[in-house]
Design goal:
This protein is α+β, with helices and mostly antiparallel strands and 575 residues long. It folds into two domains: 3-153 and 228-375, no CATH class; 446-575, Histidine kinase-like ATPase, C-terminal domain (Heat Shock Protein 90, 2-Layer Sandwich), CATH 3.30.565.10. It has 19 helices and five strands. A five-stranded mixed sheet has the order 1-2-3-5-4. A hairpin with a 2-residue loop joins β4 (552-558) and β5.
Length: 575
């Protein structure tokens, strides 16, 4: 979105109708009213009339905000400006009526009212709306990011603080079911034993692993209401008072814009009004030099006080020249009030807004950078959860299912080749029963990556060759992180099993390395030459694991076979 379009969009947001905009337009309205008046009315009377006009101007805007601008993300800039102009017209009518009643029509300058609306009050309203909307948007962004960060931290605390205990009854129940299935293997009936193995892998182990995975609760913190992001005002004020705090060109531009209305009403004094504007520009440029020199190596309180006093000194000094240069009428005193109020207001306001914008940009930058890690934290949380609470499901889905599947494939090959040896079924049964010990493995105990690869090679020996390449950096981070190691082992185990079982692969290649573009990301690639049945596109437990454990993952099936790529977050790069 371009800056112009963004500014137009912000004018139509609810934040455009705010207290800062009300105060800014009130100050400008007061100055314009006194500059446009030909009467000798008391200062209090003029202020009261200007305040009444301000309330009339803002009443339609407030009604608009509470009725049609309730959606904080829906912008209606044209409607806001139309209502503003309508309120400005009501303001002009009300102030003309009151002034006419008190001092007569001869004291009015109708052209001045409308010039002031379009040249002063309108632009100030638009600028205030854009500034306030931008700052509040930054505040909401900070609050949102901070709330997200808090939610993730609470999730991790709850996960780490609620380590699940092994459910002995569940383990015994699962082991009992598997043992009953495996005892059905009969050495004298190889074909029936093969059917039992195939059914056990497909109809018992796999569904049971899914059921257990779904039955274990997920430890996720509830979505919390975002905490209020407090503005560090001390730091903002200190930043505003550091170095050369004032913005002379911006102050001069704002004051010059305000004086345009006065020039249109009193063209004979145009050069004097230009002179006043130049005095503000030069005065604050010199004030910058003074403040920078005086505040050097001073405390924050001293710097802030000096900056405030210097803004008052410059503005009030210029206001003091008004009687000598312009005169002492009520209109002239209106300029004195304007300079006394608007001068420090523009000087300190632009300084503080700049410092506040810098501070919020800094905070947003820091939070944005940290939120880049939130996805890694979320993935890590899911990895920890699976590791700690779904060990039984992983054991069923990984090693046990792999062992049963491999045994079925080898027995099937022996049957087809007519090489079934006496006792082979009994040997397979005993091997699988011994393999059930993985169900009693301690929750924190994780096989090393080398051991897991060797186990896969032994399991698929004679069925599929497995080549593995692991970089030294990857070895270091995997060895140092049991959770990451467990997830990597499960992913490659599942990928190899799928390649052999579904695609009839007889060659697979594993490549594990840190991403050269991001050393806190581990890349896992599994390539196979399987050209049999296409890999299942159903979203099973393996797909859920990839979704939960990885930052990104993809699977491609082509004429050469299949390629699975996954990116996992690394808690420590080991560099």
């Amino acid at each position: 979105m371009s800056r112009l379009r963004e500014a137009w969009w912000r004018v139509g947001l609810p934040d455009a109708i705010s207290w800062p905009a009300f105060i800014a337009t009130l100050l400008v309205g007061v100055m314009g009213y006194f500059a446009n008046s030909r009467t000798t009315m008391p200062l209090i009377t003029g202020l009261a009339i200007a305040l009444v006009g301000q309330l009339v101007l803002w009443l339609p805007l407030v009604l608009l905000k509470i009725t049609l601008l309730r959606n904080a993300r829906r912008s209606r800039p044209l409607l806001v400006l139309v209502v503003f102009l309508a309120g400005a017209g009501l303001r002009a009518i009300a102030m003309i009526a009151i002034t006419s009643e008190l001092y007569g029509l001869q004291s009015l300058r109708p052209l001045g009212w409308f010039v002031g609306i379009f040249s002063n009050i309108g632009p100030v309203f638009v600028v205030s709306a854009i500034v306030v909307s931008s700052l509040r948007e930054r505040r909401r962004q900070i609050t949102y990011l901070a709330g997200n960060q808090k939610r993730i931290e609470e999730s991790l605390i709850e996960v780490n603080g609620a380590l699940s205990q092994r459910n002995v009854e569940a383990v015994d129940r699962v082991r009992g079911i598997l043992e009953r299935e495996l005892t059905k293997l009969d050495g004298t009936h190889a074909q029936a034993s093969l059917a039992t193995l195939q059914r056990t892998a497909v109809e018992v182990v796999r569904p049971m692993s899914h059921e257990l995975a779904k039955s274990v609760p997920r430890y996720l913190a509830p979505v919390v209401a975002p905490t209020t992001a407090l503005v560090p005002w001390v730091r903002v004020f200190d930043s505003a008072a550091t170095g050369m705090p004032f913005r002379p060109l911006l102050i001069g531009a704002l004051m010059g814009w305000e004086l345009l209305g006065a020039i249109s009403i009193r063209p004979a004094d145009a050069l004097l009004f230009v002179l006043f504007d130049v005095m503000f520009l030069v005065g604050f440029a010199l004030a910058n030099r003074v403040v920078e020199r005086v505040n050097r190596k001073r405390t924050a309180g001293f710097r802030i006080s000096t900056t405030i006093l210097m803004s008052l000194a410059v503005s009030w000094s210029i206001a003091a020249t008004v009687p000598a240069l312009l005169g002492t009428t009520t209109s002239d005193y209106g300029f004195i009030v304007a300079f006394v109020v608007l001068g420090p207001g523009f000087a300190l306001g632009t300084t503080i807004l700049s410092a506040l914008a810098r501070e919020r940009e800094r905070v947003v930058g820091e939070l944005t950078e940290s939120t880049k890690q939130l996805e890694r934290v979320l993935v890590r949380q899911r990895e920890v959860e699976w590791f700690q609470q779904k060990a039984l499901s992983r054991a069923l889905h990984g090693p046990i299912q792999m062992a049963v599947t491999a045994a079925a494939i080898r027995l099937d090959a022996s049957i087809r080749e007519g090489t079934v040896q006496p006792g082979i079924v009994n040997s397979v049964r005993q091997e699988l029963l011994n393999g059930l010990d993985v169900l009693h493995q301690a929750p924190g105990e994780v096989t090393s990556l080398d051991q897991a690869i060797e186990r896969m090679r032994a399991t698929w020996d004679g069925v599929c060759s497995i080549e593995a390449t692991v970089s030294d950096a990857a070895v270091a981070v995997i060895a140092a992180d049991g959770v990451l190691r467990s997830c990597v082992i499960d992913i490659v185990t599942e990928a190899v099993s799928n390649a052999v079982w579904h695609a009839k692969a007889d060659q697979t290649k594993l490549e594990i390395a840190l991403d050269p573009q991001a050393w806190d990301v581990l890349m896992v690639e599994v390539v196979s030459n399987g050209l049999g049945d296409a890999l299942s596109e159903n979203r099973g437990l393996g797909t859920q694991q990839l979704d939960d454990w990885t930052l990104t993952w993809s699977r491609e099936i082509n004429e050469q076979g299949s390629v699975l790529e996954a990116a996992l977050p690394v808690a420590s790069t080991g560099r």
